[in-house]
Structures are given as C-alpha cells and as structure tokens.
Amino acid sequence: MKLQSFLKTALVTGALAISTSAMADNFPSKPLSMVIGWGAGGSTDIQGRVLANVMSEHLGQPVNVINRPGAGGGVALQQLANNRDEGYTFVFGTSMSVTFGPLATPTNYDVDSFKYVAGVTLGQSALVTGANRAYSNWQELIEYAKANPGTSYATQLAFDRMLIEYIAKQEGIDLRIVPTSGGAGMAPLILSGDVEFAYSGGTHSGYAETGEMPVLASLADDRLVAFPDAPTLRELGYDIDPGDIRVVMVPKNTPEERIAKLAEALEAATQDPRFIEITEERILMPVVFMDGETVHEDLRNKVTSYQAIIEEMGGLSE
Fold first, then answer.
1. How many angstroms separate the most distant Cα atoms in the chain?
2. How many whole angstroms separate alpha carbon 8 and alpha carbon 10?
3. What is the distance between the alpha carbons of residues 140 and 286, in angstroms, rounded to a whole number?
4. Angle, to 10 degrees, between the axis of helix 2-25 and the axis of helix 256-269?
5. What are the two backbone dihedrals, phi and then psi, of residue 187, each rounded to the nearest 5 degrees?
6. Tell me: the pLDDT tens digits for 117-155?
7. Binning pLDDT at 50, 70 and 90, where does residue 7 land?
8. What is the Rg, in whole angstroms, of the alpha carbon atoms belonging to the chain?
9. Measured distance CA(298)–CA(176) in Å, rounded
10. Domain boundaries, the chain
11. What CATH number has the domain spanning 126-218?
C-alpha cells in the first residue's frame, strides 16, 4: 500500500508539473493589457499603441491599450502594484514615475516593487524657451535671470520643479514658478512670450523644424537627437542625471519565463520599422533595447541621485 500510495503521489505530482510547464509554455494564452499612465493622444500613448500592435503579432494574442492617467503616471503604477495576473497586465510608461514619484508623494510602490521587462526608448525632455528672446543659450539665460529677479518658468511636474529649484539654488537666481497642465498648457505661454523658459517632456519636438521653441538644455543623459547643440545638465556643471527611459513593467510575482517572452516581443519591436518610424521620426526619441536588469540598476541609481538632491535642498517645496 505504501508503494502504491507513493507511486500515485508521484504520478499526480508529475502531472501537475507537466501541466504547470505547459501553461508556462503557452503564455500568453489570452489577451494582454498594456496600461499607459498618460492620456490618449500624447507621445507615450501614440508610441504605446504602435508598440502594442507589434507586440501582439509576436505574442499571438491581442495587446489592448488602457489609459489610466493621473499623478504623473502614478495611478497606473498603483494599480500594477496590486495586480496579480502574472504578466497579462503590464505598464508602459516613463521611468520618472517610478523613480521620482514615490519620493514626491506617498505611494504604495517604489522602484523595487516591480519587475522590469525592458527599456525601449530614451526620453528627450528639455528646458526650452521661445524665439526672439534676450538670450540664445543657457548661460545667457542665467545672466538674464540674475539681472531680472522673478524671471518666469513654466513647470509641469513635481520632478521638473525639483530640478529647476535645485538649479536656481546653485545659480543664486530667483524665479517665478508658473504651473501648467502638460505640454498643451506650456506651449502657448512660451510661444506668446508670457513665460521666459519652461520644462518640455517632448512638445519641443514638434517645433524642431520651425525653430519656434529653441532648446536650452537637454534633460537626457546625453545630448538630444534632434537638438544636438543643447548641452546636458552635467555639461553645464550640475551634478545630476535626469535622463528618462520608457519602460515596460510587470507585477513582481510574474514568472521569469513570462518576462522572457515579453522581452523577446519588445526586442523585436525595437527592430520593427513601424515602431522605429513613430519613435524616431515622429516623436524624435531614440529607440534602444535595455534588458530588465540593466533598467532596474539604472533606476535605482537615479533614485539615489534624487534622494541626495532632495536632502541637499532640505526637502521638496509644497
């Protein structure tokens, strides 16, 4: 009886192992959801929808796009932190949401709350101004701001406000901070001359040919692809790397074999002409492929850098 019981248990265990293996090999066996933490029509959404189409072809299942805007991408990440479907739902968004977001406001997640499938694009954020200003480069702007206390700056995010306050402290300048609701709110103020300079997450790319929105400084780790004359913050003497990566994140309980399949689809997408066209030619961002471990390490380093800046500043402003 003991031998029969052992054999029966072994058969059941083996069958379960085979079944589990088959389920893993069959991933995905149903449609997936790509959650984007920004509104429809923005550059992340436009890029994400093309990415979803390409991924669906490689995975053999539809990849449905769901917009969950709010809190600078934080709403989508809060939902992902509570998600338990092991890879069928993932977030495509900006790394800033997971690096700086938890430092600025209370969240139910931090940089170690997720697994990172891959990075696919390098962000191209910038500090911009308008045409026909009294300055034509960053150093001239700083001199202008020193001579004109209350020089206006249009902010969009807690992140760029931290950056500009850090710079203002380093340079000894007094700025008037003007809150705006995204690129659509910033652009009219810059183009009309109502604001002197501003943060742009990508809106400036639409003015690359007309020259109506000159770039003063790159907020990427390297110079911007479409604006190679604009220096980086490090080149300007500021000890900070604010570069952003567009990444795909999954719940922490996602099995590694599922992450590997998603990563394969993402790597294929970065070589697909449709994704390259929308990313490099339309929104003017370089396509890259960074594996998940590399992304995670980079984001951890950025968190450490931001924490040091916040401590140096004595905390974030309200």
1. 94
2. 5
3. 29
4. 20
5. -55, -50
6. 999 999 999 999 999 999 999 999 999 999 999 999 999
7. very low
8. 23
9. 33
10. 31-123+244-313, 126-218
11. 3.40.190.10
Residue 123 · residue 246 · CB < 8 Å: yes
Backbone CA torsion sign across 305, 307, 308, 313: positive
Same fold for the domain at 31-123+244-313 and the one at 126-218? yes
**Distance, CA of 16 to CA of 145 (rounded, Å):** 69
Q: At what angle do helices 158-171 and 138-147 cross, to 10 degrees?
A: 70
Q: Measuring CA to CA, which residue among 229, 216, 193 is closest to residue 125?
A: 216
Fold of 31-123+244-313: D-Maltodextrin-Binding Protein; domain 2 (3.40.190)
Strands, DSSP E only, in the chain? Answer: 32-36, 63-67, 89-94, 114-122, 126-129, 151-155, 175-179, 197-200, 215-218, 245-251, 287-291
Beta-strand ranges (E) seen in 185-298 are: 197-200, 215-218, 245-251, 287-291
Distances (CA, A) of 1 to 4, 5, 6, 11, 138: 5, 6, 8, 15, 84
Q: What is the pLDDT of residue 71?
A: 84
pTM assigned to the model: 0.82
Q: Does the N-terminal peptide bond of residue 242 adopt cis geometry, omega within 30 degrees of 0?
A: no
Residues 6+ apart with CB under 8 A from 202: 43, 123, 124, 125, 183, 283, 284, 285
For strand 151-155 and strand 175-179, is the pairing parallel, antiparallel, or unpaired? parallel
Tell me the sheet residues that pair with 175: 151
